[in-house]
Amino acid sequence: MSGVATSALPSGAAPIARVGAKGVSRRVLPGFQLTFGYSVLYLSLIVLIPLSALVFKTFTMNWDQFWVAVSAPRVMASYRLTFGASFLAALVNLVFGLLVAWVLVRYKFPGKRIIDALVDLPFALPTAVAGISLTALLAGNGWVGQFLEPLGIKLAFTPAGIVIALIFVGLPFVVRTVQPVLEDTERELEEAATSLGASRLQTFTKVILPSIMPALLTGFAMAFARAIGEYGSVIFIAGNMPMVSEITPLIIIGKLEQYDYAGATAVALVMLVISFALLLVINGLQGWQRRRSGGI
Questions:
Q1: b/e for 153-192, b at 16 or more Cβ within 10 A?
Q2: 168 & 223 share domain
Q3: Residue 85 lies in domain
Q4: What is the pLDDT of residue 127?
Q5: Which parts of the chain fold into alpha helices (H)?
Q6: Gap between the Cα atoms of 223 and 169, Å rounded
Q7: Within a 10 A sphere around the Cβ of 276, how many other Cβ atoms?
Q8: Is CB count within 10 Å lower at the N or C end of the chain?
Q9: 274: helix, coil or strand?
Q10: Contact present, 263 and 58 (Cβ < 8 Å)
Q11: Cβ-Cβ contacts under 8 Å for 169 (sequence gap 6 or more)
């Protein structure tokens, strides 16, 4: 017999794989070796080779030159601003992204589809347009800034404006990561917890939060990674003042414009190493949370 008889299957079931004469399963996609080879080749062409070029270009500098390039006071100030503002923006998006996803999943209200579509707007909107819009809104003569500056609150051309821009571009990552997980959450567990006398806070912290925590950490990591590399929306609202509101990507662009390619790659390499280390930590926390909650 050349294959498995489909009549032996339950009614309505479809065979996923067919067993040949020698007992070897025939899958829709090629075997592991071929697909793994294509995956490694694709990742090498798209990710590994460009990053290795960055490392090799940095090796043209000796250690003293490298250290001077990456530890200059102006560069160090940009590190603190870039990573600090990115972390703060991702943290804000973690809270309010969860809130937006919760409202979109658990409630029905007029205009829900419009709000759901607006969440994706930062994905489609050019970052330069976002930066110009935020600047027109928050500047001293803007719609909002004209009322805040007399109160001593200045948002445009300050680190606070950078955080606002990074919140804007990073919010969809958290919402779109948490939203499908909330949709799949079993509400029967919440009803059971409520019937057993659990308060709303206990139900959220003991039942809902553990199930969505991996998705929250994933959304946080994606928003954080996007914020670190953001450039277009930030340069318009930052003011780009050295030691005050100058981000690291702008430092790299400045070095490239001065034809200091080795210095630009050195700063970029530091950004790459720090970002990769932080993402590893976040992914480790995500895996730990999955194991703790009994997931795979």
A1: eebbbbbbbbbbbbbbbbbbbbbbbbbebbeebeeeebee
A2: yes
A3: 62-292
A4: 84
A5: 32-43, 49-58, 63-71, 73-106, 112-119, 121-124, 127-138, 145-148, 159-184, 187-195, 200-203, 209-229, 232-238, 248-257, 261-292
A6: 8
A7: 12
A8: C
A9: helix
A10: no
A11: 122, 127, 130, 226, 227, 230, 233
Checking phi first, is residue 11 left (phi over 0); if not, alpha (psi -120 to 50) or beta?
beta
- DSSP-derived letter for residue 10 is P
Q: Is the pLDDT of residue 98 over 90?
A: yes
| pLDDT reading at 4 higher than 60 | no
Residue 72 included in any domain: yes
Q: Which helix (H) or strand (E) holds 19?
A: strand 18-19
CA 67 to chain centre: 30
215 close to 177: Cβ distance less than 8 angstroms: yes
List the Cα angle 44/50/53 in 5-degree steps.
120
Instruction: Name the residue among 279, 280, 276, 264 with its Cα closest to residue 78.
Output: 264
**CB 140 within 8 Å of CB 157:** no
Among left, alpha and beta (phi > 0; psi -120 to 50; other), residue 260 is: beta
| pLDDT at residue 88, rounded to an integer | 95
Q: Which residues contact 154 (CB under 8 A, 6 or more apart)?
A: 140, 145, 148, 160
Structure tokens at 1: 């017999």
Q: Residue 118 domain-assigned?
A: yes
For 160, the 3-state DSSP assignment is helix
Task: Using alpha carbons only, give the angle 111, 173, 77 rounded to the nearest 5 degrees.
Answer: 125
- 258 and 206 within one domain: yes
pTM of the shown model? 0.79
